[in-house]
Amino acid sequence: MELAQVRLLVTDFAACYRFYADVLGLKPQSGAAGGPYEKFSPATGSAGIALQDRAMMAGVLGELGGTVTGHRSLVVLRVDDLDAYCAEITSRGATLLHGPAPMTDRMRVAHLKDPEGNVVELQEWLLLRT
Q1: Which run of H or of E encompasses 56?
Q2: Is the pTM higher than 0.85?
Q3: Residue 17: which of 116, 119, 120 has the closest Cα?
Q4: CB distance 6 to 106 below 8 Å
Q5: Do the beta carbons of residue 13 and residue 35 sit within 8 Å?
Q6: Residue 102, strand partner residues
Q7: Which residue among 8, 73, 87, 121 has its CA within the 20 to 30 Å range from the CA of 47?
Q8: Does residue 120 contact residue 24 with C-beta atoms inside 8 Å?
């Protein structure tokens, strides 16, 4: 078994597409900015994040058609230099909710939200301090 992707069900596909492509700088697979589906990949690694139009999936799973409230997911992205990446994405319109700040002695994090309210955690892994 292999994890292929984490898929977010979104109502404003275009706004989320712009956020993951233009703000976070992830590479879209096909350029389908209008949806109803797109997969985004970081520069390294094989895992990806995909967006799917919520109304389309509600046609398959009717229970998804209701109003969504609250935080629905947490997407985690690892970066090499958290401070530099945060400066880069805030210059492109991201608003940090927290950090960059230590989470443990081995990790620093920052948090922000995408246009649908999904929480994105940016992680910088640190060498174990002895």
Answers
A1: helix 54-58
A2: no
A3: 116
A4: no
A5: yes
A6: 108
A7: 87
A8: yes
